[in-house]
Each structure stands twice: as structure tokens, then as C-alpha cells.
Amino acid sequence: MPPGGFAGSAVTTIVIVRKAGQIAIAGDSQSTFGDTRLSAGDDRHWDKIFAAQGGFFAISGSAAHDLVLKSLLGKARKLDFSSRPAIFEAFRKLHPKLKDQFFLKPDEDEDDPYESSQMTVLVANPHGIFAVFSMREVYEYQRFWAIGSGADFAIGAMSAVYGNAELDAEAIARIGVSAGCEFDINSSLPMSCHVIAARPE
Description:
By secondary structure, the chain is an alpha+beta fold. The chain contains four helices and eleven strands; from the N terminus they run E-E-E-E-E-E-H-H-E-E-E-E-H-H-E.
């Protein structure tokens, strides 16, 4: 999967932003099942972002991943998500549990070098903003990133406004999700947004 994580099933717009000591993670509220759309007005649990292990997580991919990762992170002992190597080790430890306890099917393409965890995850915590991709590749971002089918729109919008001194991380994240919801058929408002203070570098 490419670093953007734009898989066909990744029908959402989720963004992370870091700026001036503030970290924000935001996401849209729509779930899509084939040609059927489930909006926030009908979904009692529409917030795609959840708190765990001292930070916030959001998933792009199958809707099944949401409850799985919430359950797994909620039951796991304290894991280290403070850096790119630490997050890799955390997801490496979680992968066997995904298979053994939650019946994950780890196969994608025959030529893949490793088993897949079948999900793309954004991680926001006081240490930074990160993305974990299906083969447990971990990226750490300096400014912002987005995943899901609306990611291209969100990244473009955030790139255009990031240099505006009047906009903080939360405002930029909201602009990114709004752009995804405006142009991506699989994303819609309202959005959720969570903000935390970044540790000094």
C-alpha cells in the first residue's frame, strides 16, 4: 500500500496536524457500505476517533477494525507509542493478537513481503503525529497528513493554509476534513476533532 494509505475500502477523511505546540486529529462521520451511506444522524457511535494508551487513534479501512482495535488497545498492557520505532514494536506485538484473538485474515497480495494487519491507523499523542500502514510501516509527520478516500482533498487544503499564522492546528485540521467532506462522496459532516498539547522538541 502506498504511504497515503488510499485503499479502495478506506472510505473516510481523517487528518492529523502539528503546529506551534498543538496537535489535532479530526475525522468525518460517514460510514459507507457499498452504495449505502450511514450518516451521523442515524449512527449512534459516529465518532471515528478514540482515546487509548495516552493518545488518540483513528482507522481507515474495514468498519470491523474500529471495535477490534478499541478492544485490543483497551485490554493490552501499557504500550509505548512515543516514537516511530516504539510504535512499530507496539503494532508488531499486537499483530499476533489480531490473528489469534480477533481472527484477522492477514493475506493481501501473494507478492507481499509480510503479513498484513489490513488497516491504516493515525496516531496522535503528545510525542507527535504518526501513521501506521498495513504491513506495520510507521511514518512520523512534521506538519500534517490524512488518510482515507478524501485524503487528497484534505492534504491539498491543509497545505494551502498551513503557513497562515492565524490558524492553529485545530483550525487546519477542521479545514482538511471540511475539504474532504466537500468533494469526497464517501465523507460527510459533522466532524469530530480532538486537540492535545505537544511535548517540547
